[in-house]
User: Fold these one by one.
Assistant:
Number 1:
Amino acid sequence: MAVRTAVLVDGDNVSGAHGATILKAARAKGVPDVVRVYADAQRNSGWHDAVGYRLIHAGTGKNAADLLLSIDAMELALVGGIGTFFIASSDKDFTHLAHRLREYGKSVNGFGEAKTPEAFRSACCTFVEIGSSAMPKEPAVPVSEFDRKIRAMIAANSKKGTGMQISQLSGRMFAQHGTRISTYPEGNWRAYLLARPQLYDLDPRGPEAKVRFRPQGFGNAA
């Protein structure tokens, strides 16, 4: 008897642009019986147009998608006959779910972007990093000396590619380079980084929000 499989995506954390990549990887191991993406359906996102997915409205609260996905995953494992799970998220919170599913003898295959913490990666039987090769390439632009300094600062304060807290940039850039972001047109660090999407990837707003640099945006810049 073939093992039943499920593809469950944290749509509030993973871009709909990766939908086809995730589904292709899952289908390489058989035809999935359940394919769902959990997100706030009231928000316009790429998941509304993702072919092959059932969009589950998780509500608007913080971590709503995480909680509903986890509840459904356990239900599918215990009474739904699912033996193999493909879970797509870059969120550390799914570490507990992966461990628990494996304790019940289920196979857990993770998908996530480069920022995915090692805890979730290690909790999965296999983990596939998505994003870097699937993302459209930004046109090459000159990289300023200032941005090279920012890249070096992020690299020095990032653990395993998870990034550096944006709130720490101001003090450390001033201490090392005498930089005051208020003297730049954007006026603050978040605005400056957001204005350069080809160079930086930011977490949503929050006291512990992090920034990562995009290697492809810097090209050969050291």
Number 2:
Amino acid sequence: MPAGGRVNRRGRSDVIVVGGGVVGATCALALAGRDLEVVLVEGQAPAPWSAQQPDLRVYAFAPDNAALLAQLGVWQAVRDARAQAYRRMRVWDAAGGGELCFDADRLGRSHLGWIVEHALLADRLWAALPAAGVQVRCPARVEAMEQDASGVRLRLDDGTRLDARLVVAADGAASTVRQLAGLPVHGHDYAQRGLVGYLRSERPHEDTAWQRFLPSGPLAVLPCTAGRSSIVWTLPNAEAARVLALDDAAFSRELTTAFGARLGQLQIDSPRAAFPLKLQLARQYVEGRVLAIGDAAHVVHPLAGQGVNLGLRDVAGLRQLVADAQARRAEWDTPHRLQRWARTRRSENTVAAYTFDGINTLFSNDELHTTLARGPLLGLAGKLPPLTNLLWRRAAGP
């Protein structure tokens, strides 16, 4: 589905973004908004969002990224369709001890963030591409790539050849572009799955994002519109398969027990699905004139709901790099600028990834000494407002 766009007389665009998910589409819009000539390559266009069929994949969207989408002219369209603000977050351990609570009023905010469906974000982002001047190549996949000091050339599966000053790999955890560029990755499989679905609760969700740590993994219950909530239930692979096979009544009983009946009886109210969890980090984000963002650069544990937020901060950093260079009437794609962006983003994403990894290791076990310590640690953090504020600023972004 080609769309209008700006490509210079030499047939070379400024940037080719490969991957049209939430992070890739946002990147294309952000760079086009800096008056760059942008091409977006994607294998399959997102299905139109349907209000009657909510996407099982939801994000806890941070305020800084909502501000980014607002600057790109997309956020209001998302909020007008369906987005649930949450004002509190409560975290506690099934083994006992204290509770960590983030409260918008105490943090001087109107809300902490929003729960938004993946499909809705993708739909509204793609709707904004034509007006931004982004040239869309879809369906199309990258088959080959070569680069030199001046630019990158791609061959697509339909035989089309594209040429650009810079290529951005936003094509997911199994990124073809990252592999073609020779960007190495490392990490490990968690041997866990994240089980997702929607539920209705006996008591209101109180505009609160809830998370209970269990020896099998964390269970998050996230507030949604129309009184429903979304779950992200981390379970070992075999246990996830067992729970998925239960009928709705038995599943709802186990879910209520796992959540400690905090909101009374829970009733599953949608199909269920599960996806495998892993930690995967690129050892470097830039190779020549190819750089990686989002899941192509970092896949983290979903317990803090920060995966898409980290990816969009990659985009915000890249957009700022271009803006700073343009303000100085300098070249925006010099190696030292790209490497500075890469060092900053890799540092932040690596710290976040291993923080989530450590929390998962600490709480997803029933070892006696660890169990005795972790509840009181949560309680202590919850009683120290400066620490609570610091933790929240880290999650909410600048």
Number 3:
Amino acid sequence: MKEQLEAIQSEALEKIDGTNNVKELQEIKVAYLGKKGSLTGVLRGMGKLSKEERPVVGEIANKVREAITDALEQKSEILEQEAMEKQLEAEAIDITLPGRQVKVGGPHLLTSIVEEIEDLFIGMGFEVREGPEVETDYYNFEALNLPKGHPARDMQDTFYLTNELLMRTHTSPVQARTMREFDGGKPVRMICPGKVYRRDTDDATHSHQFTQIEGLFVDENVRMSDLKGILDTFAKKMFGQERKIRLRPSYFPFTEPSVEMDISCKVCGGDGCSVCKGSGWIEILGAGMVHPNVLEMAGYDPEKYSGFAFGMGTERIAMLKYGVNDIRQFYTNDIRFLKQYHNA
């Protein structure tokens, strides 16, 4: 039986060494160490041995089992390692290949213009304020010296949601809300950018929804000359130091006196061309001194406080600065158009 055990060991080790397959290795294990395996069959015959032979054969059998088991484990580790290396090699990434270019977007042109204007006015001591786009009739009209029935309300052509709620037609309600918040107790220096809505037919220069930036400065001894200085600084920063401005008399219910501001045409330098329709000037915004009624309704004493306000269309500023000839291009999401201004 001793010779039989040694033969089983030699045969098993030879087969283990010669296999390169995990499945075959498992079959070898079953063939020699399983319930019906060669070694198990020999051990079952130990009952026929004498008492003296059993310990000797049992010791040999244990050594054979250990030798086969160790060989199986070592071979299993080798095969697993080889399988892992093959898998890694098959899944390897070729880092010599050029990478796929990642397309990076940029801010929308209107966003860039708004941020540029905000930075300019923040540098002059203004703060940025926001308000609701769904506004009350009171703040959108009445608090701005436009009582019910006032003919200037028709200029706005409003989207009404109810008798008292509407889509704001300008960002001036933010000014009225801010003054009411301060309750006539401290100066105001603010700008308010945001979307506004009007019943208008969309074309190259009009849109039912567009963006405004309005400003307000209320304090003691505020004069028209302060307004002109602020607007002159704005025009030169936005359109170039060579730009000149002029103020023309106009009418707005919430300012008195009211003015329209023009800048000298950058195409012709003021000589007259098709862009400025031969005048040499281009209108860009409206402004004026805050009407005493507006100050009084917000809690400010018009005998003590004065102020100025101005409002501009962001799209118009962008169109003039970058030569865009159709306001609809800002909203059609044409990537070819938008990509031109990623670094604007």
Number 4:
Amino acid sequence: MEQVPENWQRGLVIVAHPDDIEYGAAAAVARWTGQGKDISYLLVTRGEAGIAGMAPAQAGPLREVEQIAGAREVGVHTVEFLEHPDGRIEEGLVLRRDLAAAIRRHRPEMVVLLNFGDTWAPGLVNSADHRAVGRSAMDAISDAGNEWIFPELADLAPWSPRWAAVVGPVVTHAVDVSAHLEQAHDSLAAHRRYLQVLNPAIPVEEQVQEVIAMATGPKEGFPAAHAVGFELFTFAG
């Protein structure tokens, strides 16, 4: 198991919903901001359809506030929302264009994505939003460096990230997050209202502890008691 490259300064995390980052990558983000790296978050939706019994007009602003608070816990101060419709994200050219524009604005060397495969594990289906965002983002990484694919973005200079690191069931690289578990815990705990509704039978603190333990467990072949694993893709030298 190899170490994720860390000879970069700017990173962009692209996900579909508030809390997606905190369910896997937050501890790694805390490690990287602790190294002085500049990490930004890009949320394709505001998660407005994510709280049962709460109307989207109320849930969207609440989840936005929770996401910004969670980001702050791991040293991230730039959080952008694209406002595509939660639960109805469409994979394709419109989303690719919006993501390519964001990549050109933020100019990341490393892009972090959430699993966009069909499943998380045998019998556990991934959400349509996760699939659409991840697949479009992988295309947008290439689009962002090509001046001719979206000529309407001519005011933004082309930019090509070097890597994409995907949190998911396939792990090729990892980072040691042993020193950042508390930050990851606090980042997920910031989504308190969402977690209360997600599983009302289990206290938020117990949910958070379970998620962090699962996300930061040891990875086979990697010498750390607590690690976050990624599938790494290389795009440029």
